[in-house]
Amino acid sequence: EHLQSQNVSIAPGVTIQYSFPELFFYKPKLWWPNGLGEQSLYNVSISVNVKGHGESDYWNHHFGFRKIESHIDSYTGGRLFKVNGQPIFIRGGNWILSDGLLRLSKKRYETDIKFHADMNFNMIRCWGGGIAERPDFYHYCDIYGLLVWQEFWITGDCDGRGDPISNIDGPQDHKLFLLCATDTVKLLRNHPSLALWVGGNEQTPPDDINSALKNYLQLHPHFKYSNES
Amino acid sequence: AEIGKTLLHSGWLAARSTEVELNGVRLTTTNPPAHPSVAPWMEAAVPGTVLGTLFKNKFVPDPFYGLQNEAIIDIADSGREYYTFWFFTTFQSNLSGNHFLDLNFRAINYSAELFLNGHKKVLPKGMFRRHSLDVTDILLDGQNLLAVLVHPPDNPGTIPPQGGQGGDHEIGKDIAAQYVQGWDWMAPIRDRNTGIWDEVSATVTGPVKIIDPHLVSSFFDNYTRIYLHSTVDLQNRSSAVADCSLNIHVTTDIEGSICLV
């Protein structure tokens, strides 16, 4: 039931977007954050064969079935999270990056992230003054159940504050910022550990960037009303 | 050539651009750097940074011990050219007629010019963007020569004597990591993390390439009924209509090598 083939014809020199008919799963194992259950991962592989040529390309990714919801609580002002319908008490750590010379090996990521899990943490927040973390970082967060709060590259001190006061409309090239943001989202979006995108550290980005990010990252209406009978 | 990805993480050399008299065309045609490396060339840290390369070759001390970072010249004082570096490597290829080869850089800080077998391509600005280049037309059977000239961020800024959060904030003008100008917890990174800092690979595909699949699930009946939605971009790079069989396959490891389909 979880193997599906479709025939598609593509004109020369053209890029198309194709959606598979949805695949149905009955009671699959869910992915849970550290401490709430197992981090069940499925392997999803997509391949394309071209008539007359054979295999043309393939792609693999670990995927976890999980639903993450969050909202700002009006009483406390804090953000509350639910995973798979269950409220979760967040025990988080702040993260800039693994190494200032960007020696970002898989072994180092695994060690660092397992350490966070061993500390009984269930979330890592990637600060806006650091980097958009790499797929290997997310892979081990998937494995060890660390939710990730990923900020884009805006900080108060470099964008609107500091002494002298920095440019509140920074960065200079908004179009480039959005290009990098959308590409980063595409790079990381399939990781089950990815819980929340945040515009920047301690402030929102300039209005045009902020509204573009909100628009790009909003939940498709099709998924807003799921989990009903 | 087999369909799939090959990492290009070995055999890289690096040299400061101001110490290399040759241009990218000559480096990737008639005058490639010698192996093993001869000055000004050195073994490069790829993926990594220019500072990582200099440290690897013991040209600078480890910036994270004691006050050794003070012994490394900051880009504000040296100028951007000092941390503008050539990176060079070779790779083999043997494509058949209906295959295509892409060179992929998952992240470069901050911009670069790429030369492959004498042909130039530009890798535009931005620390957090992927670059994927179809180089099929300029590929040679056998050995290919690849050189990449990597430029630091446009606005590396200066570090005030008293330090401070993000130095003089100039780095905030670029789409790059901002901690590199130093923070309350961190000394300034002298090269501002210039480099080919994430995965480099070559991918071989047939006429149709899969781009950025998107997987989403929806949940019903208290998580008993779940649907996996998957969307994919497909690019036909050939000059003929491609009749494709597109497959999606979901498996899970139960125990050891036993797989549930």
Structural write-up:
The complex is a heterodimer of chains A (229) and B (261). Chain A is of the alpha/beta class and 229 residues long. In chain A, 23% of the residues lie in helices and 29% in strands. Chain A contains 5 helices and 12 strands. In chain A, strand 11, helix 3 and strand 12 (194-198) form a beta-alpha-beta unit. Chain A is globular. The radius of gyration of chain B is 22 Å and the shape is globular. Chains A and B meet through strand 1, strand 2, strand 3, strand 4 and strand 5 of A and helix 2, strand 11, strand 12 and strand 13 of B.
Element order, helices and strands of chain B? EEHEHHEEEEEEEEEEE
Structural category of chain B is mainly beta
What's the alpha carbon Rg of chain A, rounded to whole Å? Answer: 20 Å
What shape does the CA trace of chain A take? globular
Strand content of chain A: 25-35%
**First and last CA, distance of chain A:** 22 Å
Please state the average pLDDT score of chain B: 95
What summary fits the major beta sheet of chain A? 4 strands, parallel
Backbone shape of chain B: globular
Helix-strand category of chain A: alpha/beta
Low-pLDDT segments, ≥5 res of chain A: none
Strand line-up across the major sheet of chain B: 3-2-4-9-6-7
Helix percentage range of chain B: under 10%
Which strands sit side by side, in order, in the main sheet of chain A?
A: 9-10-11-12
Number of strands of chain B: 14
Secondary structure tally, helices of chain B = 3
CA gyration radius of chain B, whole angstroms: 22 Å
Would you list the SSEs of chain A in sequence order as H and E?
A: EEEEEEEEEHEHEHEHH
Q: Biggest chain pair contact, residues each?
A: A-B, 101 and 92 residues
